[in-house]
Amino acid sequence: MNTYIFLQHYWWFLVSLLGALLVFLLFVQGGQSMLFTVGKTTLQRKMLLNATGRKWEFTFTTLVTFGGAFFASFPLFYSTSFGGAYWAWIIILLCFVLQAVSYEYQARKGNLLGKKTYQIFLLLNGILAPVMLGTAVGTFFNGAEFVVNKQQLVEVLNPVISSWATPWHGMEAVLVWWNVCLGLAVFFLSRVLASLYFINSIDNAEIRHYSRKHLRWNAALFLAFFLMFFVHLLLQDGFAVHPDTKEIFIQPYKYFSNFVEMPVVLAVLLTGVAGVLFGIGKTIFCDNWNKGIWFAGAGTVFTVLAILLCAGWNNTSYYPSLQDLQSSLTIENSCSSFFTLRTMGYVSILIPFVLAYIVYAWRSLDLHKIDEEEMKNSKHLY
Amino acid sequence: MESINTSLIDWSRAQFALTAIYHWLFVPITLGVGIVQAIMETVYYKTGDNFWKRTAQFWMKLFGINFAIGVATGLILEFEFGTNWSNYSWFVGDIFGAPLAIEGIVAFFMEATFIAVMFFGWDKVSKGFHLASTWLTILGATISAFWILVANAWMQYPTGMQFNPDTVRNEMINFWDVAFSPVALNKFFHTVLSGWIVGAMFVVGVASWFLLKKRETKFALASIKIGAVFGVVACVLSIWTGDGSAYQVAQRQPMKFAAMEGLYEGREGVGLVGIGVLNPAKTQYNDNEDPFLFKIEFPKLLSFLAERDMDAYVPGITNIIEGGYRQRDGTIALSAEEKITRGKLAIRALADYRTVENDSLKQHARAMLDEHFQYFGYGYIKKPSDLIPSVGLTFYAFHLMVILGGFLLLLFAVTSYLSYKNKFEHKRWLQWTCLLSIFLAVMAGQAGWVVAEVGRQPWAIQDILPVSAAISKLSASSVQVTFFIFLALFTVLLIAELRIMINAIKKGPH
What is the pLDDT of residue B124? Predict the structure, then answer.
């Protein structure tokens, strides 16, 4: 493997890792979606808001960095997907805008729209963000309606190289069941993780009770949608790239083959699935155990990482075009130059340091569990 | 051939401008107040005096209210490069994406991590760790500003890259040229300092309100002392970096520089317009109308600003369009017509390079492309007059910024002097002036961005890609709808923010 090809794979790994961390951090959205069901009283809702509210910045920042890293490493995806699937991305962005202000504003006097409205914004973000992000990622396996023609740049009157083939600009993705199925799996996973997070970080018997209750049926729905999606993924035709001619073609059982041909990725997947199941199962069956979030969280990161690696590695098109197969994006035809990937590779050496201080700060804040006393006495609350 | 609708270009520009304008209402306060609150917490850390803790916490509360909406608008801004400027994203994504990614990895996570400790960690972490978190939060915000301004500066002065006809895009060949170009450094310092000025004015203005209401006098005077001195420092440094920025504009973007001064006919020893009223009857660069109804000039100062030489030649808009003048490097400037012709040759050469199969023809096309690539963007320009930005908007915005900058320096200097002489408390007229000047400081910052962004039109990337070729292929109506959605949403959120802020201020620090 030459260095350029290695860097393409390395950057797909980093983007996938950021995507995987983002899915884990969607527990914040999952928590928001359960604000009115787990939180039975105003005080309980306040505790839930403060539990997720101290972490929403991480989800938000991971999303922004995911976008920035995609832009830097695979700019043709950034250009084609964001410019084409316009409405899908605008809806995702809008619901994140609502989230960004709602935590801070909902508890403040003079907030114009009233506390309830901001909490409903959080609810909306909690539902729409995971469903839409999952649906958007579904197009990595099921394709999207675009055409890329770099020759177009020389057409002075219409030099845009990427165009979308439907007037729905991305919203047609919600008509593909397998995209929505992944969206729903991500949604219920975010609620599973939120339940586990509440159990771990809030010292309140009633909230823990309701969280455990929600955990059961959300876990059942998550597993149902995830298994449906995953079994279909293994059985479906995939979008393969000929290693010599670079031609894109349909290959039966491509994603199944990818896991078989990349045993390390398969091992990561199985470890991840085991972590998620262990985190959920032990929490359900052991009443006093509250560490489930760490097992299920790490498991989520491993599982999503493996699935995203399966989408881009092993001569696979990670963003297939349903309009023109040869327009499909691969990590090779959509990536930045060797120089940029290498330079950014040096920057990525900082990532472990970033992760280290995040862990340190997270632990420092979470050493004390959120409880009623803090909600009543502390001045620094949402 | 289906062509790009000009209405789509206008609405896409309007949407980006709208988002940027709203974003820049909040970011300067974050940058400036962040430093002030960190200084206050440092005093608390050193003295252990709870007064300083409460004072820092008050400004942190306002910082937090402001921060949330700044983050929200910033998210939209980043993704709009993809949603509305997709061709741009491919054409220069290899260079432009890198600063955005570094911003995320290095700066955003620092901000996101330590802001949580800053707000919620008072009773949970040690005093030292909390203070470090406060400084790291503002450091993260400032590093974030650095990288996004590097990206913006690169659009004004594309460097450290070369065009690759095989991939049909520009590719980075020197990271340090991109990150530390003189334009980037000047832009970073000038813009961050302008944020410090807004933050300082915000602190002094809000504290003055407490004096007007005869409340929290000790807190208000302490805040004013720190804020006003901080403001003086920021203003002085801002004038210095502003001069550097103007010099860079004169060197790299002469059309913008001419528009800033309403200069149509270049000459040697040009004066700097202090105050002026443009002549609305002047609608064409070559219509022989006098560009000004009235103006007061500082003799020869514009030549000095542009070339560091009182007698240097500065080209005007007409000269830049018609060419023929001797440039700094001794070459004769090409006319706009000639540049457009060469741009079309470059585009044609790219088309040939990608279609011909004969090696020698391919090499010939490549040589032609390389020879004319510096004019590539001109190939998309329809007529020379399209190269002239809005002179009125650029001229008035520039002069408004300069005049307000001078006024704010004076205000901070007087406020500093009187507050250290313990005479500020009874100067109600000055307190009112400080309160109302928050709005003026915000306006100065906005005007600066208007100069930077309107003045460089029609370019998305100077000389390389005009906005008309940087666009995403969408229907104009789609962008119109999202424009109005953003307008309504941001406006509602701004009103909410102001109301929350006013309520929090009324509640006071204790």
Answer: 86
CA distance A173 to A176: 6
For residue A44, give its domain range: 3-377
Cβ <8 Å between A155 and B1:
yes
Choose the mutation target among B9, B23, B58, B75 for the interface with A, i.e. most A CBs under 10 Å. B75
Out of A55, A69, A105, whose CB is closest to B496? A105
Q: To probe the interface with A, which of B83, B106, B150 has the most A CB atoms within 10 Å?
A: B83
Please report the ipTM that was assigned to this predicted complex. Answer: 0.93
- Candidates A272, A269, A192; CA nearest to A225 is A192
| B436 close to B209: Cβ distance less than 8 angstroms | no
How far is it, in rounded angstroms, from Cα A26 to Cα A362? 16
- Residue B82 pLDDT: 94
Distance (Å) from the alpha carbon of B396 to chain A's nearest alpha carbon? 33
Q: Which residues of A touch B495 (CB under 8 A)?
A: 112
Q: How far apart are CA A159 and CA A353, in angstroms?
A: 42
Q: Does A101 sit within 8 Å of B72, measured CB to CB?
A: yes
Q: Report how many domains make up chain A.
A: 1
Q: Which of B1, B69, B173 sits opposite A158 (nearest CB)?
A: B1
Q: What is the pLDDT of residue A365?
A: 84
Judge whether A79 lies within some domain.
yes
| Spans in chain A with pLDDT lower than 70 | 1
| Most B CBs within 10 Å, among A60, A86, A148, A164, to test the B interface | A86
Give the number of other Cβ atoms within 10 Å of residue B502's Cβ: 14
Q: Is the pLDDT of residue B2 over 70?
A: no
Are B74 and B30 a contacting pair, CB within 8 Å? no
Mean pLDDT over B167-171 rounds to 96
- Sign of the Cα torsion B226, B229, B230, B231 reads positive
Residues from chain A that touch B85, judged by Cβ atoms under 8 A, are 83
CA angle (B423, B427, B429) in 5-degree steps: 155
Cα separation, A189 vs A181, whole angstroms: 12
DSSP bridge partners of A287 = none
Report the alpha-carbon distance of residue B292 to residue A153 in Å, rounded: 41
Q: What are B255-309's pLDDT values in tens digits?
A: 999 999 999 999 999 999 999 999 999 999 999 999 999 999 999 999 999 999 9
Q: What is the mean pLDDT of chain B?
A: 95
Chain B residues near residue A340 by CB distance under 8 angstroms:
94-95, 97-98, 171-172
Would you call the peptide bond into B458 cis, given omega within 30 degrees of 0 as the criterion?
A: yes
Q: Give A-chain residues touching B109 at CB under 8 angstroms.
A: 61, 65, 354, 358
Query: Cβ of B380 and A336 within 8 Å?
Result: no
A382 in a structural domain: no
Give B158→chain A minimum CA distance, Å: 16
pLDDT of B244 above 90: yes
- With bands split at pLDDT 50, 70 and 90, how would you rate the model's confidence at B407? very high
Distance, CA of B335 to CA of B285 (rounded, Å): 14
**Residue A144, both tokens:** 């999207």
- Let me know: does A34 contact A49? Beta carbons within 8 Å: no
Q: Tell me if residue A319 falls in helix, strand or coil.
A: strand
Q: Residue B137: its pLDDT value, please?
A: 96
Residue B202 burial (CB < 10 Å; 0-12/13-18/19+)?
buried
pLDDT for A382 equals 82
User: B78–A67: do the CB atoms touch at under 8 Å?
Assistant: yes
**Given an 8 Å threshold on Cβ–Cβ distance, is A83 in contact with B482?**
no
pLDDT > 90 in chain B, percent: 92
pLDDT at B347: 97
The CA–CA distances, whole Å, from B83 to A67, A90, A153, A170, B87 equal: 12, 8, 18, 11, 10
Count of Cβ atoms closer than 10 Å to residue B277 Cβ? 12
